[in-house]
Amino acid sequence: MPDRTGSPTGWRTAIPGINAAHTYRRSWLRFDLVAGVVLAAILVPQGMAYAELAGLPAVTGLYTTIACLVGYAVMGPSRVLVLGPDSAVSPLIFAAIAPIVVVADDPATAITLAGMMAVMVGVILVGLGVGKLGFVADLLSKEVQVGYMNGLAITIFVGQLPKLCGFSTDADGFIAEVQAFVDGFPDRNPTAMWLGLATLAILLVLPRFTRTLPAVLLAVVGATLVTGLFDLDIATVGSLPKGLPRPALPWTNVSDVAPMLVAAIGITLVSLTDTIATSTAFSARRGEEVEPNKEMIGIGVANVAAGFFQGFAVSTSSSRTAVADQTGAKSQVTGLIGAGVVALLLLVFNGLLANLPQTALAAVVIAAAISLVDLATLRRYLGLHRSSLFLSLVATGGVVFFGVLQGILIAVVLSILLFFRRNWWPHGEVLGRVDGEEGWHSEVGGHVIEGRPGILVFRWEAPLFFANAGMFRDRVRELVRAENPAWVVLQCEAITDIDVTAADVLEQLDEELNEQGVHLAFVELRARLKNLVYDYGLFATLDAEHFYGSIDEALAAIDGTT
């Protein structure tokens, strides 16, 4: 029942699908029906392609698509977000499964391992959502995200080239795969290669002219018809197993839990980061609010559902969400209709895609990989922040040369190191007046600043803690030696914390400056930190009267004492 404000409560709050059903309008159905059918036309080839990218049978991509769409429709808060197999997640799945089992020899075990991983991802995401830990998405900085995706694109592109050209290799690792492709290229299947290149051209060129007709639908249907009509001698998907899978708990051995868990954590970070970004973008466009914690629960349930129905881990797809949005989707009924169409394909028309060529699926994957590349951001980093460019390229190199799983771990470590670097070696700026401008400025941006004789105004732009306290002290000492002021006014607006080590450093620095006839004053120090300074017992050294609300207030007080 809704409360007095009209907001849903009880089960309708806990299960968004119930509230969506209660508030659904009949006028939406025709829009959702059209959007669902169009969406299914994209979900089928992409689901199959990304399943093979994960090293699994193509049909598992369809099982995954159905289960995750239904799961998210029940528990997902967004009206338009579309989940499914993803080009950024599938390589992580393959990287985790490949060392344990050879898929071609034992596909059943591979499917079970992928299902275990999906359930783990789901449980982690639901736990994060229930614990309101959405900030975990921030563990991957923008620089590292861009680098990781660029590396992933390169890896996927190289790995799919043999399949695009109609042959296969057993190489493992980027360098080995490049070498194997070069060595195997003379054995290519020309028919498969040209059909694959034609499919890829449609996927890349058609969206530049129109988005009314989905390029992936036209390309895949065209390749399938050409293969069947001309009876081409190339590898095809073949008839799909008829029917839907029964739900079952995916489980192999206890020894498999650890490697699956490592991959699950990586998938969680990638999926969560992508989902929050996509959800934010489309919610803003539709005037809706993002609910990150509910999104995590919704994605988590979708992953658990996929795992129990012979599927694998999923993420949000910005391209498929865009299709749903552009075709007028009004609610998650769009996803349910899409899932129903895919289920109908498996139950009744399982032979419809028998002539779908493997080279066309490779083209779908390569097109998705190309869409992951973000050179524009790298160019922006080059002009604005070269350290960000370096970090991004290191993340790319980690994925390309050390592997996808190792690459995601390198990406996370880089993000954490980036955080520490920015707080370990923060900026400290001398402030002064600028002719014709209000306030206090640094020399950044070409400003010519003018200080007050005998007064040094210094801004520290980070929390004061054990790792940077010594640097702070050394910087103040250096400035005092150079300027020989009577007062050092510390502008503390950016200081968000002071730990015990930093407090000791402040006490020692104040005593040292006092011996030189220099006084220390604090400006815009947060009330919480001022109380913390008191708790540390620093007012025995620091003068309690030398804490001010602004630089001008501090200077006026200093003028009154001289």
Structural commentary:
The protein is mostly helical and 562 residues long. It folds into two domains: 25-417, no CATH class; 428-561, STAS domain (Transcription Regulator spoIIAA, 2-Layer Sandwich), CATH 3.30.750.24. It is built from 22 helices and seven strands. The chain has helices spanning 11-14, 16-23, 29-53, 59-75, 90-97, 107-130, 142-164, 174-184, 190-205, 215-229, 257-286, 292-308, 318-326, 333-347, 358-372, 375-384, 386-402, 404-424, 469-483, 500-515, 527-535, 551-561, and strands spanning 83-84, 315-316, 428-430, 455-460, 487-491, 519-523, 547-548. α20 (500-515) links the parallel β5 (487-491) and β6 (519-523). The protein is elongated.
How are the secondary structure elements laid out?
Blueprint: H1 11-14, H2 16-23, H3 29-53, H4 59-75, E1 83-84, H5 90-97, H6 107-130, H7 142-164, H8 174-184, H9 190-205, H10 215-229, H11 257-286, H12 292-308, E2 315-316, H13 318-326, H14 333-347, H15 358-372, H16 375-384, H17 386-402, H18 404-424, E3 428-430, E4 455-460, H19 469-483, E5 487-491, H20 500-515, E6 519-523, H21 527-535, E7 547-548, H22 551-561
Parallel strand pairs: 4-5, 5-6, 6-7
Antiparallel strand pairs: 1-2, 3-4
Helix pairs in contact: 3-4, 3-13, 3-14, 3-15, 4-12, 4-14, 5-11, 6-11, 6-12, 7-8, 7-15, 7-17, 7-18, 9-10, 9-15, 11-12, 11-13, 16-17, 17-18, 19-20
Domain count, please report it. 2
Q: Helicity range of the residues?
A: 55-70%
For the biggest sheet, the summary is: 5 strands, mixed
Using only C-alpha atoms, the radius of gyration works out to 29 Å
Whole-number mean pLDDT:
87
Order of helices and strands: HHHHEHHHHHHHHEHHHHHHEEHEHEHEH
Number of alpha- plus pi-helical segments: 22
Q: How much of the polypeptide forms β-strand, as a percent range?
A: under 5%
* Class from helix and strand fractions: mainly alpha
